[in-house]
Amino acid sequence: MVTNAERKEHPISMRLPEADVAMIDRAAGLRGRSRTDFVREAAVRAAEDVLMENGLIRMSPEGFADFMKVLSGPATPVPEIVELVKRPAPWEPGYGAKS
Fold first, then answer.
1. Example GO biological process term (predicted)?
2. Where are the domains of the chain?
3. Helix/strand/coil percentages in the chain, nearest 5
């Protein structure tokens, strides 16, 4: 007996200018992906970015007070970051020199 399974994939159709399709195809080729995979991944990544930007963070008043206390306190240097910002940039003299 054949049953109707729920559809797991949903088609999306778009009309795009030829130049856009050419650029997408070129980028997909550079990534070794199909046009469909490339566009799907880019769309999902963009959707995740929007959702993360608009995410609501809930916390108790006590939790918020603790959060504000940490933010208001003195910064603690991270040795790896301090070392990184002391390195010369690639366009500066001394770049690549051993310390």
1. regulation of DNA-templated transcription
2. 18-86
3. 55, 0, 45
Q: What is the DSSP string of 22-72?
A: HHHHHHHHHHT--HHHHHHHHHHHHHHHHHHHT------HHHHHHHHHHHH
The answer to whether 59 and 67 have CB atoms below 8 angstroms apart is yes
| Residues 6 or more apart in contact with residue 41 via CB below 8 angstroms | 33
Given the structure tokens 């070392």, which residue do they identify? 83
- Residue 25: DSSP 8-state: H
H or E stretch covering 82: helix 79-86
State pTM to two decimals. 0.53
Is residue 24 within 8 A of residue 35, CB to CB? The reply is yes
pLDDT score for 31: 97
Q: Where does the pLDDT of residue 98 fall: very low under 50, low under 70, confident under 90, or very high at 90 and above?
A: low
